[in-house]
UniProtKB/TrEMBL annotation:
Biased composition (Polar residues): 115-124
Oligomer status and interactors: Heterohexamer.
InterPro entries xrefs: Mito_inner_translocase_sub, Tim10-like, Tim10-like_dom_sf
Location within or outside the cell: Mitochondrion inner membrane
Domain characteristics, as noted in the entry: The twin CX3C motif contains 4 conserved Cys residues that form 2 disulfide bonds in the mitochondrial intermembrane space.
Domain of life: Eukaryota
Protein name: Mitochondrial import inner membrane translocase subunit
Function: Mitochondrial intermembrane chaperone that participates in the import and insertion of some multi-pass transmembrane proteins into the mitochondrial inner membrane. Also required for the transfer of beta-barrel precursors from the TOM complex to the sorting and assembly machinery (SAM complex) of the outer membrane. Acts as a chaperone-like protein that protects the hydrophobic precursors from aggregation and guide them through the mitochondrial intermembrane space.
Record domain Tim10-like: where: 6-64
GO CC, one annotated term: mitochondrial inner membrane
BP GO terms, sorted: protein transport
Record keywords, A-Z: Chaperone, Disulfide bond, Membrane, Metal-binding, Mitochondrion, Mitochondrion inner membrane, Protein transport, Translocation, Transport, Zinc
Length: 124
């Protein structure tokens, strides 16, 4: 399943590059639309345009492949740094709702001195 998705992505990318090249070179080189065949100048221009486009695309992809590991490594380092900062902030900032507040704490019951207790009788 993943292999098919990758193939579809590759095909889509190829078609996007091909369509862009075709549009760019046609706009640049096709001057006379009165004839079915290309003139020699148009054919030379299209050949040169397509060659330049393909070469520049190959160079761009080579640079991308060469730079991608360092970019990914830098992103991973940034993510790890952010995670460490979040953990440090979480440790220093304890949730205030979890701390006991003196005004809401339940007061302890006073100790009753059972030695000096007098029992009041109702028959006085």
């Amino acid at each position: 399943m993943a292999g098919e998705e990758q193939q579809l992505r590759n095909l889509r990318d190829f078609l996007l590059v091909y369509n862009r090249m075709t549009e760019l070179c046609f706009t640049r080189c096709a001057k006379n639309l009165n004839y079915r065949s290309l003139t020699m100048d148009e054919e030379t221009c299209l050949d040169s345009c397509a060659t330049k486009f393909i070469r520049s695309n190959h160079r761009l992809m080579a640079a991308y492949v060469g730079l991608m590991p360092s970019v990914v490594q830098r992103r991973m380092a940034d993510i790890e740094k952010q995670n460490k900062e979040l953990e440090a902030n979480a440790e220093t900032n304890v949730d205030p709702s979890l701390e006991a507040k003196p005004e809401t704490a339940i007061p302890a019951e006073p100790a009753i001195d059972t030695d000096n207790v007098s029992i009041a009788s109702g028959s006085q």
